[in-house]
Every structure is written in structure tokens, then in C-alpha cells.
Fold this protein.
Amino acid sequence: MSEAPNFPRDDADATDAIAFPKPGTVRRGNLTFSHPALADWSWPYTVVRGAEDGPHLALISGVHPAEYPAIEANIRVTRNLDPAELRGTVVSLPLIDVPAFLPRTPFVCPIDGKNPNRFFPGDPNGTFTEVMDDAIFRAVIAPADALVDLHGGDMVEALVPFSIYSVTGNAVVDDRSEALARAFGLPYLVPLTPQPGAIGGTTAHAAAAAGVPSIVAEAGSSGLLTEPETQLLVDGVQNALRSLGMLDGELRRHDTVEIGKFTWLRSPAEGMWRPSVEVGAHVSEGDTIGRIGNLYGDTLAEIAAPHDGVILFITSAPAMPHDGLIIAVGETGS
């Protein structure tokens, strides 16, 4: 990476909360927490405080730390964001699940085996992941006016780029979340309503429930650091900043397909998963989209599309436990 731009700097570490530098200044440092469970860890952060007042955006990534285009995009945006051209403040944490990064642990924190994106807003009396989520939620997410959480395909995931926002029933927050997701400009948009049996405890759900408009933006696949997906996320963040009035420039318009049903299918048996479609493929209800076989090559289960739609996500690794996530189909209404 090239030399850092010569923006005014006032670096400082932080504990439990992040203080802003003076207007027109960048601050880098390590965020630590006073909770005893987190005492051995620190989180690199960057604050870019604009020369003029404006919204406060939390920009995070690395909740799943093998989603490398997301992490790289976060680093690239904040490294090159000129505070003289910014209104408001961007607070960036490029890596949330710090303990999982160097061991290359997909999905979960290796300390307690929990997926951090299932336990927000966290619990200060819980296990490590719950304590970490609580500390980061309080320090970074809750104080913000909006949240952009960058994700992508982890080591065993392939996906087509899409954004998610949480539908809470708070019309003001929901409308702002949707507008932020549309401005981000990924090809597909998924509104999710928290409900029993559905995935919960995500950053976006917790932020929106606390009144912070929020999105999750997904691009990249299979734990690879790929330039097109990285740039897609960089462009999306910059467009989101324009939509919030934090950067000048023309707001780029994108054709975005809204998803109706977002159905996650799980394996009815353990064995070898063999998808017969690729991400982005359009399928009709009842189409065979893969099968589960045993280690003799016998078919244990045929997997059929539950409804018309587009394949948004596929588990790319063949090894499949019983009830493991295999594929996701989004209903496009076309």
C-alpha cells in the first residue's frame, strides 16, 4: 500500500469510548476496554473528523474476519478520506473479531466458539463474544447516527453482492436504513424483519432497534481478497457518505432489485454437499439446486428451490453437517 496521505493527525489510544480529535483531523489508535474479559485485547480504530459538522457514521468490518474485501475496503476508505472534504465524522473499526483474525477462524470467535453476529448488542455478563459485542456496541455503534457494517463471503461461502437492512417498525429508522442501503448500490436489497427462528443478534438488527439506521453490505467470496469486490464496497461507502451529506459529489444511482422472501435452506443429512447452481442463478420453485450425498456417492437428499428467485448465497465447501446452512434463495418477484 502507498504512503499514507498527509492529513493532519492527532493519534491517541482509547479505553471504553472513542474521543474525537479537533475538526479537520485524523486520529488513529488502539481501543481497549476495562472489562476484565477483554483485558488482553485491543482493536485498531480510525476517526476521520471533518472540517465541518455533520453526521457521525460508524464504519465496521471483520465481524467475520476472513471476509477480506470488507476489511480492505474499510481500511482503504478511511486511509484516503480527506477530513478537509468531509462533513461530520467517520469512526472506523476494520476488525471486530480480533481473536479470530490471525488464526483464520471462520465465522466464530475461537475463545468461546460463538458467532459475534448473533449476539449484538451483547451482554457484559456473558462469555467473551457477548462481552466483546457489548463493549463495541456501546463504544462504536450506539453513539453513531448511522452504521455501515461491511461483510462478504467467508472461507466457505460464495455469494452475489447484496445489502441487508432491518425492518423494526420504527418508520423513521426503517426509511433511513432503506435509503442508506439503496444508496450503497449493491445489486440486491434484502429487508429483514426479526422473527422467531430467523437469524438475530446482528449488528444491523441491534443498531436499528436502538434507533441507529444501519445496513450490512456483502461482497466477496470464499475467503479471498479480490479487487473487484473490494472496490465495489469502497464505492458503496463513498456513495453512502454522499447520501448522508457527508461528502460532496453526485450521488450515483444504481439498479437495485428488492428481495421479498429470503429463504435459508439447511441440510437434512450430513455428507457431501454438491450444488448444481451458481450464485446469481435464477431458479423456479421446485428446481433441483443441489444434493447431499454420502461418502459412497449415494444421494441422501435432493435439494429443491422453495420458490422462484435468485441464488444469493451458497456454502462452497462440500463437507456438510446435519442442519448446516447450504444455500439461500431470494424472491425477486420476477
The helical segments are 68-80, 98-101, 128-141, 171-184, 203-209, 227-243. The chain is about 20% helix and 30% strand.
